Fold each of these.
Amino acid sequence: MKDLSKKLFVISGSSGVGKGTVIKSLISKHSDIKLSISCTTRMPRPKEINGVNYFFTTREEFEKSVSNDEFLEWAEFSGNCYGTKKSFVINTLKNSHVLLEIDTQGALQIKNKMPGAILIFIAPPSYEELVSRLRGRHTESEDAINKRLNFVNIEKENSKLFDYIIVNDTVENAVEQIEKIING
Ligand code: 5GP
């Protein structure tokens, strides 16, 4: 019989907010939560591995998947496309909780399609802090960074529709807050 207790968690947060570190820590502590690997048309950053961080695809391949209705959600973010494969989420939810790390546009699409999904937004302790974290990344051009900063306000606005907003003051604190949400 299908186990209906498995939940879909969606975590969003502005670029540079440190959500990657929070999620890594969370996943390492909870083997019953599976992280979905998204498809993207963006180029891999140094040290990113295909099939580990993302499935890196061409825009043509991505568009083919869109027209074949393979994505549960997808969005264009900062000039690149990102999408979550429907098959992975549906199959994995049979046995495990699933966690999506996606942008707020995608998160709201998920909420529409799967109202039981739990949306968590990770906010920075301050905007200044966020800008300095983003600038400290040194992996992107000034133009790319500015584009991402423009999204910060949109994401902040979208986050009002989320179930939970947590502040990433320290990784330990953020993980603890998410664990409380997961344990219901
Ligand atoms: P990055 O290029 O920094 O890895 O990710 C840029 C943004 O795309 C982040 O906000 C990240 O959460 C989001 N993202 C990653 N995968 C997906 C996805 O499958 N769908 C959507 N909608 N956003 C995604």
Amino acid sequence: MYNTKKITEDLFWVGANDRRISLFESVYPVPTGVSYNSYLLMDEKTVLLDTVDKSVNHQFLENVAHVLNGKNLDYLIINHMEPDHCAEIPTIVAKYPNVKIVCNAKIQTMIKQFFDFELPEEQYMIVKEGDSLNTGRHNLTFVFAPMVHWPEVMVTYDTVDKILFSADAFGSFGAIDGNIFADEVDFDHRYMDEARRYYTNIVGKYGQQVQMLLKKAANIDIQMICPLHGYVWRKDLDKFIDKYVKWSTYTPEINSVMIAYASVYGGTQNAAEILAGKLAQNGVKDIKMYDVSVTHPSYILSDAFKYSHIVFASTTYNNGIFVNMENLLHDVVAHNLQNRKIAILENGSWAPVSGKLMTEVLSGLKNTEIIESKVSLKSSVKSDKYEELENLAKEIIESMK
Ligand code: FEO
């Protein structure tokens, strides 16, 4: 049965939730699920903005049919060709054969790569940056946003109701729990961490391209943001946009320390705990610790974007970096983290080399300083290492000033 949500007098959410999905994009755990948002504008001409993932197609098709209520579907705007949003294009084309697909040239190429359906060229409206579509009362303008998150991405701006259909930007992990607007839920406590984890892992690498979109957005009056995942924003837009400014410029949100450690028999963990305690005794607040063998790297990467200082502590394993730590470090580098201060702690019972190897992996991070003091353990913390940990804590605190 249909489950739609009214956003304005003539705009409806026709998406759906998936709470059974275990790994979004086959990588990211989503313990609170994910929403696939699609929007239907009921103007003189009817316009569907994006579709959904195939896992929720039944709910989506019922929703579209319910809102159309027997009317024809005139336009399908495709902002992003990733299959979590485009999977139902063939079904929509089959069900509403006169529909015109509105997209840019790159999107059209991808449609033909992904799907086999034949649609006459006159049923494509290929748009360029700044082109518009008038649908009666509304006027929709298309703004290109390459690499937020794929190269073909564009966003759609309704110049009449001042609504930005922002594609993946301003989205979040987590299903929509009944409410549709971000101001109807305790977003800061329930969703902000998941919005950060979504941003950093999905588009974190493309900060520069996100900044370009933010610059374009700064020139238009935006009263509402309708993303492809998560809640719709109609209040406190500046607060969320400010987060995007910080994340896309790789600016830490807090001046504090995150410690990620890999420990097989407890020696490295012990050193990490002692270091955290010494930092706390010296006034550092809100320290965060992760065991990389327990927590999925997407959570740790997300906090790496939040914290100003990061300690990576790893045992040596197979004459290299412990496997989960190595995976995390490559993830951090791949996501283009910048502007951080990093401390290294290594362990190894006969030939500790993880510190040197971790430093090598991290040396490519832009505007990032590796703090000089490095703690090197052999198996476990002894009294001389206690002093070294104290010195490292002091050096980290000094660099926080
Ligand atoms: Fe939600 Fe890039 O797809």
